[in-house]
Design brief:
The chain is of the alpha+beta class. It contains two helices and 20 strands. The strands form nine sheets. The protein has a three-stranded antiparallel β-sheet, with no helix packed on it. A three-stranded antiparallel β-sheet has the order 13-14-15, with no helix packed on it. A hairpin with an 8-residue loop joins strand 14 (143-147) and strand 15. Helix 1 (2-27) runs antiparallel to helix 2 (209-246). The longest helix is centred in the C-terminal third of the chain and has 38 residues, at 209-246.
Length: 247
């Protein structure tokens, strides 16, 4: 009887967690550069006085679908998309490095080049700062050129180069904020000159809305099935107690 309860309880918990991941993917179906979240699960024996045959389902480290999203031309000079493999490097609030494919950039009030989440873009020499009011272009190799702020006498000049990296996918860990970081103990990767950008283009989310909707329906059915298992176990237990009481 208790084995049936463990199976139903573990399955219901797994279905709920998977549903949360799918819902998050659905919410980001239009987020530029978003990578669909993937939850993996494994069986872990129950530790305690229970029988050795009892096991629970637990989530392992969250993964991500690393397939590229569709490319959309915007014509905006500060929209960039990584062509093929590679990542943009941003500075996190704690001063560390993180990696993203979100390429709709903006210039902050103090001239820092930022993501739409206000995270500074890192270059070869730290956060990239551009002249206020200048017209910017981003080359395929990440070099940023600024045309003087409304002064025809001021020509174009190079103001920095984005740090583009291409670490092994197996070394990356997805954070709750959607950014990717290197695994604990792994050094930050150096800039990779082979990574190329497309200017005036954004990479869309790689979430397939139709597939995500089908997954949500399937997870709801799985949860209902596991709850039915628990209800059946409870009903069987009540019937057994009645038989014992009248025996």
């Amino acid at each position: 009887m208790d084995r049936m309860i463990y199976i139903g309880m573990g399955g219901a918990k797994q279905a709920m967690e998977q549903q949360a991941a799918v819902a998050n993917n659905m919410a980001n179906v239009s987020t530029p550069g978003f990578r669909a979240q993937i939850n993996n699960y494994r069986a872990v024996p129950v530790v305690g006085d229970e029988m050795a045959t009892r096991a629970m389902v637990v989530a392992t480290t969250q993964g991500a679908d690393m397939r590229s999203g569709p490319l959309v031309q915007t014509g905006r000079s500060l929209d960039v998309a990584v062509r093929g493999d590679g990542w943009l490097t941003v500075q996190t609030p704690d001063g560390g490095e993180a990696y993203t494919r979100v390429g709709n950039l903006q210039v902050g009030a103090e001239g820092q080049l930022l993501t739409m989440d206000s995270l500074p873009l890192l270059g070869d020499a730290g956060p990239v700062v551009v002249p206020p009011g200048s017209s910017l272009t981003v080359a395929a190799d990440g070099v940023i050129t600024a045309l003087g702020a409304g002064d025809p006498a001021v020509g174009a000049s190079e103001v920095g180069r984005l740090k583009l990296v291409n670490p092994a996918v197996s070394e990356l860990v997805r954070g709750d904020d959607g950014l990717f970081r290197m695994q604990a103990g792994v050094a930050a990767p150096p800039a990779d000159p082979g990574v190329r950008l497309l200017s005036g283009t954004l990479e869309g989310s790689n979430v397939n809305a139709v597939e995500a909707m089908v997954d949500m329906i399937a997870n709801a059915r799985r949860f209902e099935m596991q709850m039915k298992t628990l209800q059946t176990a409870e009903s069987n237990d009540q019937q057994a107690n009645k038989l014992l009481a009248h025996g």
